[in-house]
Write a structure and sequence with these properties.
The structure is a homodimer.
Chain A (H helix, E strand, L loop, with lengths): L10 H13 L14 H12 L10 E6 L2 H19 L6 H6 L10 E7 L13 H22 L3 E5 L4 H7 L7 E9 L9 H4 L12 E3 L10
Antiparallel strand pairs in A: 1-2, 2-4, 3-4
Amino acid sequence: MADNKQTIFSQGERETLHKVLAARRDMRHFVSGTSVSPEVMERLFAAAHMAPSVGLMQPWRFIRVQNDQLREDIARLVGEEIKTTANKVGPRKSEFLKLKLEGVRTCAQLVAVVLAPDDGTLLGRRTLPQEMALCSAACAIENMWLAARAENIGLGWVSLFDPQKLGALLHCPKEALPIALLCIGPVQEFYEKPMLVQEGWRDEKPLVGMLFEDRWPIEGETQ
Amino acid sequence: MADNKQTIFSQGERETLHKVLAARRDMRHFVSGTSVSPEVMERLFAAAHMAPSVGLMQPWRFIRVQNDQLREDIARLVGEEIKTTANKVGPRKSEFLKLKLEGVRTCAQLVAVVLAPDDGTLLGRRTLPQEMALCSAACAIENMWLAARAENIGLGWVSLFDPQKLGALLHCPKEALPIALLCIGPVQEFYEKPMLVQEGWRDEKPLVGMLFEDRWPIEGETQ
């Protein structure tokens, strides 16, 4: 859209960005029977593709799920993983099972994000190869997420799946790694707070305990 | 900033977001002897902290490098890694060594981002624990990056370092993983294209080859 990379952003534009950042939510509740226009989907993918990537490797791949049977198979896979996780959360199992953790069946558009097989890029990833590829793909998803919120539609990143089984459903090569099921579409309303906070599952921690100077803090020391 | 999560964004606001996404660059050239005001740094960290995280684990930790000797030690570490990488890139070694790959000494503010030791969060990361924590921290960095661009200052994510050695310099616990050195500060101008494209190191690939339907493409097949 903008061609001039020297753009000077105004205070109003900065505030718009922060408004989008603050309003973005990880959505699990969608309005079923809705759709997302091709133009909107195009803008979401364009946003993702503008992401940074280490060594310019652009490791993100997007698989739009259009086939109903495939979507159903994916929903079952997610259901399996929710059960497996439930059996591991211990005393909070029943509380866990009450959470709505995915919108695979009801969202307007389901998109799988897959980390491409390693292309051998060395620049900036000699010491952290898999990590930096993952981080690049995550930046693309965050861009898409913000773009979705700016379109007033929801997006939820579901990671409750066995990556090998999801890869098999999507016919991915063995060296590729599915990292996200993005549920995208219209929502009744956006959560006021992160859904896990709203449901009493977990509290948010403030930034203050995560921001240090010159070194990791000595245990018990407040910075 | 925005308190109402039900905000309906306008077309103008959407365009502002896409303008920021398009203007963001991975910067390596900074204006030395400059500074970033505390208010701006606060907005950048606030943007980062608004990121999504799997199971709400918020695994990002930020270490602001204020000590000059520490910054110099980090710059040397990055210099070592550049040499090591140069010896592995093969025939393009001299071309590689001409690239400016970091702005550790010249940027106004250096910030290390560290992945916190695993807190045991299970929700959404039973099958991909390290991967999902990394992705969450990467989303925080992307938020910060966009916020920096909207402040009209540069940010570069340097990953040319040995994470163990950087962790030692920052006194991180063994279970923590440094993933980024963020060079932040005023720049003379933003690159028109990604610097690696501008310098002829690598071309960008178009989105079209990364967007599939229902399955990973069969080799040789155009979708």
